[in-house]
Amino acid sequence: MELFFRKSIIAATGLFLCIFLIVHLSANCILLLPEDIARELYNSYSTTLRENPLIKLVAYALYLSIILHVVYALLVTLRNRKAKPTKYALNHSNENSSWASQNMGLIGIFILLFIVVHLANFWARIKLGMGEAVGTDAFGYVDVYEVTSSLFHNIYYVIFYSLLMIPLGLHLHHGLKSAFKTLGFYHKSGLDLLAEVAVVYAAIMSIGFGVIPFIVYFK
Amino acid sequence: MKATFRIWRQDTPNGQGGFKDYEVDGLNADMSFLEALDHLNEILVLRNEKVVAFEYDCREGICGQCGVYINGRAHGPHENITTCQLHMRSFEDGATIVIEPWRADAFPIIKDLIVDRSAFDRIIEQGGYISAKTGTAPEANAIPIGKEISDRAMDAAACIGCGACVATCKNASAALFTSAKINHLNSLPQGQPEAHKRVLEMTAQMEKEGFGHCTFTGACEVECPEGISIVNIAEMNARYLKAKLFS
User: Fold this and answer.
1) What's the longest Cα–Cα distance across chain B?
2) Which of A60, A157, A173, B161 makes the best surface tag, with the fewest CB within 10 Å?
């Protein structure tokens, strides 16, 4: 029971997070528009999100998904370590499987680190009111655009945000492929197609999220 | 041909083990890997030293008894073979070859390169069979089965239980073995009456034996001598879900 239940939780929450990322990246694309339009659109979009009760529900599901994903990944890792207490003196695992698939936990730690910094930069400031106060724009909306734009005019943050999209891409590629298998999808040609979709999806997410900070920096 | 065998030596199940180097001369590129180990053991006998304990039976790739970790790979450097199908021509003259037993909590070491794989037997005991009245063999064509289904069942049934999947898996998961055994019987009409019970009980035993979670690295299907596809694991997961919901 444990073997199936734990992995199914990780797979289901992971897939939910995959869908969330599509919405998130779509919204980030607003940042690519000319500054005036981008500011208005971005701020009105984020205000609409914050004020919609349905989105609030989705936000709670999102927090819960991240927590469950991490907690169950930890439980799975602990059991797996116990199942293989002695490592091989010589192990060429790179010859039979991808590095990412062998190191999802390690990659996950990098992503978690990113999430903590990301939440501190935005969520803590905008929603919790911590740190420097966030102003309003000409339309009276909370100026989330300014928070984003000023953050991405700091080259260190730009590099940090972009660099950590590499582990994200690796994690998404293996995660998307195996989540379906974990949940019992076993159609052979469907899985072949899924493997290709996973590459495209991971590349779009990784490159998309990784390039936008640079574009904002040079705008 | 010469080689240095760096072999894991361990006298007792709970004893302290360690690597020992053996420089072996007089090998031949056409020797199978097991014959090379035989050759080493003959030398050790003449030197009045303890021989290296390793397991084998048929030596033609069908019994699943042989199996050691060779140079960082289960069953050696090639894909989809057993250890007895590996030959010395796969190594360079004078090479150092590292040989370790399967490593998994559920496969405790008995001696040197031999591990106890009875955890697999106990999984089979939970439903890797069909309950049927004994008697003379039924007429072969009495139950018509489509080719696609019989092919799939046969592909899964090909598993020889060597344990390479567990050995190569970073989590020591037995999902490939267990799924092959479940899917073989559950896809055939003969396996239907006990289908749900089989999947629930065999997977419960797999969990009890202390195997890890499957994280789909895909290493198992590369090392499996019978090329059992990892899709079997996804199919087992679907069968498990179905059994949980409908039984």
Assistant:
1) 64
2) A60
